[in-house]
Predict the structure.
Amino acid sequence: MSDTASALEGVNFVAGRWTASRGGETYERRNPWRPSEVVGEFPSSGAEDVDAAVAAAEAAHPAWSSRPAAQRGAILARAADAIDARVEEIAQDMTREMGKPLREARLEAARAAMILRFFAGEGWRPWGQVYEQSASGAMVYTRRRSLGVVGLITPWNFPAAIPAWKTAPALAYGNTVVLKLAQDAPLTGLHLARALAEADLPEGVLNVVIGRGSAVGEPLIADPRVRAVSFTGSVPVGHGVRDRAASLGKRTQLELGGHNPMIVAADAKLDAAVQAAYAGAFWSAGQKCTATRRIYVEEPVYDEFRERLLARIEHGKVGDPADPDTEVGPLVNQSQFEEVLAGIDRGREEGGTVLTGGERADADAYLVAPTVFENVGDDAYLSCEEVFGPVTSLYRFGTLEEAIERANAVRFGLSAAVFTTNLATATRCVDELQAGILHVNSQTAGADVHVPFGGTKASGYGPHEQGRAAIEFYTEEVTVYQDA
Ligand code: NAD
């Protein structure tokens, strides 16, 4: 592997080299906590860069896919070690470039290593099934093959975990990759490329291109050498990606937004429910696809729950994300900040009452105070659309049936939680809540690395990600009739 960058600024990673974009254009990324501070300059790449990256990935595919899977896995395991050795540096960079509080950034950086390690193990696991032919009893078996070059398009909100959970299975199953990182968090993703480069990943197997969606994402999807596209991001962009990719006959996977409900039954352990509501709604400043947007509380405990949640908010530290005690930091950029404030204004205009927060919390930073609404109508904007910030709403409910019906009354279906000590209540919620990820007595956010992750309804499209489920998207299954 050639030239490992001493600094990750200003470069893409193409054909094993750290290179500026062909056009030489760059943009500045600023710290959302102190927007006058430039974190770094990064390439504003374009179609030529995508072309070079896809060409490198295509050239690398035959040798990479024919390596024994366990050897591919060994490279992923070494990359996991490289990330583990640099968790603090990666976390600090993540916090500076996109404002995630350090305590969560550290966990996410360590999680990227866990993801690589899980998929390293895939090299040792079965790839098919053996049957008998019905007429002769001779063998017929299935095996999985890599697709070729895959395009991965990622958002800024989990800048270590999401690039890792797409790249690791893609590589483990023998594909080569062009990874498009989000413009708001390129540095964290480049750490993944550096770790893999240090682990002796052959050149061209992973290529990373940074730039705008229209300038990098679109040519990547359109390139005929790219067999499949995995996308995580917003609903409108995702649907455009799916329509374009599907019209070109490509395999497509989308992980999109959510509007995740939490139901608190009267028999719930209230302290645990309050803590989960706080963490689910406000950690990462609510910038998680799985954040808790709606909290339905059973009438007899509503007032008590509201009081305890407001008390919890009083105690949570809001501010500088680099302070390890901070729980709620800034939003990622000015436009997200303005969108969230506009969402809050609309919530008020439509009759919602702000119980706490609802305003800018720092003169300089893109900081919004943790915000809780009540009296929001079920059809109001806040009840239906994803406001990607620290904003949640409380609703009273009378019967479980009513709570489930209201929880399901959105187009999204990513995650949902129920807090109860009654097994029948839990079971009914698990049966009836429309979500791809269900939590009984835990917050709506959070994802283990070894189990499937993905949404239903408008929140997802195509096979789930993570765990062994990832094999569905990143391989194709062939059937072999083998006679003597
Ligand atoms: P986004 O849709 O704006 O961007 C996602 C990626 O797509 C970025 O890399 C962007 O540059 C690229 N892109 C933009 N336009 C494109 C185009 N025309 N063609 C190809 N690529 C294009 O989303 P975001 O603001 O980065 O992320 C936040 C959103 O992501 C939220 O809606 C959140 O819920 C969602 N999200 C979902 C999951 C999940 O697993 N379901 C996880 C994290 C985030």
